Amino acid sequence: MKKKLQRLLVLMPLLVGHLIFAQEKVVTGTVTDSDGMPIPGVNVVVENTNRGVQTDFDGNYSIEASVAEILVFSYLGFASERRAVETDDVLDVQLAEDAAALDEVVVVGYGTQSKRMLTDNVAKLTSEDIDEVPTPSVQSALAGKAAGVQVTQTNGKVEGGVNIRIRGVSSIGAGSEPLYVLDGVPLINNNESNNGAPTNPLLTLSSNEIESIDILKDASAAAVYGSRGANGVVIITTKKGKSGKASLSLNYSYGVSEPANLRDWLNADEYIELFTEAAINTYGEEEGLAVAEENFESLANGTNWRDGEVDTDWQDLIFQNGFVQDMDFSVSGGDEKTSYFFSGAYNDTKGIITGNELDRVTARANVSHRLTNKFNTGLNMSFSRTNIDRIANDNAFVNPVQAVAQPALSPAYLEDGEPNSNTLYPNFLLQDKYAFYNTLVRRVTGRAFAEYQFFEFLKFNTDFGYDLYYQTEDQFEGRLVPFQATNGEAYASSVATESYVTSNYFSFSKTFSGVHDLDVVAGMEYNNTNRRFQDVTGIEFPTDDFQTIESAAEITDGSGEETGNSFLSYFARATYAFNNKYLLKASVRRDGSSRFGSENQFGTFPAVSGGWILTEENFLQDNTVLSFLKFRASYGQTGNANIDDFASRGLFGGVSYNQRPGIAPNQAENPLLTWESVDQFDLGLEYGFLNNRISGEIDYYLKESDGLLFEVPLPGTSGRPIINRNIGLMENEGVEFVINADIFQGDFTWSTSFNIANNDNTVKSLPTDGADIITGQNILREGEPISAFYLLEYAGVDPDNGDALYYVNGEDTERETTTNPNEANRIVAGQPYAEWIAGFTNSLYYKGIDLAFTFQGEWGASIYNAGGVYQSANGDYYDNQTADQLDRWQEPGDITNVPQARFFGANGTAQSTRYLQESDFIRLRNLTLGYTLPDHIIEELGLQNFRVYFSGLNLLTITDYEGYDPESTSDANQGTGVSFYSAPAARTYSIGVNLKF
């Protein structure tokens, strides 16, 4: 018996070990941060073994382990986590932030990287930065949030084009917009508007589906996108499902809008006063009075102007109270193998300008599935439909804002309720009633992907992306519309642009000897884009009830074209870290494009960067004040390919000669044409104090754009009108400063972020052998900023006689003046691009109450009001005037900047600095105030979250600019930084509710 007991005791450990081994299984899960964001690249190791894996892009992992074994989860910037394997097959882990590290994970193109180990300049925005901002434009929600990133909407139209400039303007002749990449798919971003005003192609995106936006600012970050990264890269990542219980989120908000600013115009009595005086000053007392009264009779259209029967507030008819309505829902969840995210959203926006509206429907489905422990696949798909009721461009007489030129004496409507057709300028109300211009955009984007993990350190990704942008535009103008000489006219167009991209790349990630971290990505990509456009115009309709081309009696015009381009690319990137403190990165991309000449179709775009985390050194590791300090430097080259397809080819087009068909050359061949090349050098310092409660970064950069693309006219004897060439050099130099602070922590939290950036732009050389290129009020001149203003210099008013004065030559120290603008010389008088931009964001929370707001500021830019020669012209023509024209010169000794009123006197109406103003401003861009119900109440309601909130957009603007808006400029291609009856931005107040089940 004793021997049997001894044998049993000897066998017990073996039996227990066998039982434990028998419970070995596959453990899966998701690793997230404190915000629930998945963390890719986390090391998951079975303690005291050599078994380990890494989480994929969605934070998922799968590993073989036995019950009671310990899994160790580690990632740079996060505190390591040890978790015992239990009977459950799913083990989700949330890693806590390591207070001693900057731990943000950023998307850098074909992968991700810890912000702490980054040697590039990348700005990251999360869904919290763009949620609940009441605007249909995702880009507008970014304003003020990232250093060196300027976001400007052209004007207050709901579909208005949005310009994003990253570290200044990098091109003159090619595009200046960044490359947008949605879940790895380069997005089509062409303006396809046909009414003369641009639209924003990215209106098709809804903010509810966006998880994060990473902005690659320096060349080291953007060079992996090679020929299209010169203007920076904006990487948009959509939301994904997470393992665990399914959740349903519902959001609804409704807001009202109004113009952010209005101007004061003359009422009927003031108009009569000013123009009577102007006519008398020109023609004398008796004749002037007769001329004035004759004009008033005509403008009053049969009403009694003497008794003030009509005093039309045209501005009140132009602008209206609009609204913004947003609804969206999402369902997400998953298990150890499958994760999913489904969402839908609806936006309904009535603009602040009469006749301008937008509605949009979007839907998204993101699904990923782990087929085996090594094979993961998924699909991202989205659809959107955007319907826009549009108005005319700023330079059209029927643009509603141009109605401010109508005198208040003129009635807007006749007694029968019809719009008055006998006004000084065409009455936009006729256009609004008897015409329409509709733009409808349908967009489909998708990405199918697969990932195979050969070993824990090597994986292969293959992606296929697709983007379809399909737009139709329909216009009808009835027989009563201004300028309509027929029984109605209709226009219809359609454009379909589709782009597909396939990417295949390997990723290698391994740590050697515990101190050498090496990550390598290498692969290829092919991108093909095709575009087809058609339009047709018809006239003579039986009645205005028939409004489509089918009913036109005569087809008067039509056109069609097809075009396309392709890119073939090879890329590689390697990052190396030694002992978590010495960092090195190198990348290269080789692009070939069909757009460029046969002898220069391929370009190579290299970049290199390095970093040193000083706080990992022994002499700083125990510092209680300085918690993080990193120095980084980078140099790289990117390209700009934003030109027309076939720009290098010799092109011919069909022509009609004496009603017979023929062909004629319209572009000369240039086999040497190639990319604009942008070389960028960046120095950066990232810092953290007091356990990173205060953190930020300081950057200096120098960007040099060489081989600028120009469309150069050729002499008529060449037989070809133009040729595209690489000529010119431009430079951007700047600094950026960012500071983030957690001011209070605990029950009351307050975090703040401030960024400010300076950019100096200089044209270094031009294709005209140094000769100026003057376009309207703008000039390209070597040594000056791009598109600087070139104007006569206004010298004010002669106090003796009320004459407008101009400086003869701005460089003369004596400052001689003249009353004849033809005797004066133009000067460089300012620039359209801000020298300084800044943003100030605060987030506060206390016992369920949250408050967040962002101020945005710009300094150093000017706006030229091209409409000023009509609307602020001291009674020179019939146009109604801004109220400040009442402060005109009237008698000797008057000190004023407004010359004497002279009807048809051209007194001070030359294009000059009189109409140029600095557009410096500080704007409360957005504000959100919310309240979340306490947990115990939410649980009783069966909810996960219940929050109500108020949100505002453009609530306050501090500026000395006297126009409608310091950001609004003409959308009719009338010059850079030029305003012409351009509508102000909308001020919006919204209330909303967030529910989560």
UniProtKB/TrEMBL annotation:
PROSITE patterns on file: TONB_DEPENDENT_REC_3 (PS52016)
Record domain TonB-dependent receptor plug: where: 115-233
Signal sequence interval, chain numbering: 1-22
Assigned keywords, A-Z: Cell outer membrane, Membrane, Receptor, Signal, Transmembrane, Transmembrane beta strand, Transport
Membrane topology, from the record: Multi-pass membrane protein
Cross-referenced InterPro entries: Beta-barrel_TonB_sf, CarboxyPept-like_regulatory, Plug_dom, Plug_dom_sf, TonB-dep_OMP_SusC/RagA, TonB-dep_OMP_SusC/RagA_CS, TonB-dep_rcpt-like
Pfam families cross-referenced by the UniProt entry: CarbopepD_reg_2, Plug
Principal cellular location given in the protein's record: membrane
Record keyword Transport present: yes
SUPFAM superfamilies assigned to the protein according to its UniProt record, in alphabetical order: Carboxypeptidase regulatory domain-like, Porins
Domain of life: Bacteria
Localisation: Cell outer membrane
Keyword GTP-binding in annotation: no
Family, as annotated: Belongs to the TonB-dependent receptor family.
Protein's name in the database: TonB-dependent receptor
Lineage: Bacteria, Pseudomonadati, Bacteroidota, Flavobacteriia, Flavobacteriales
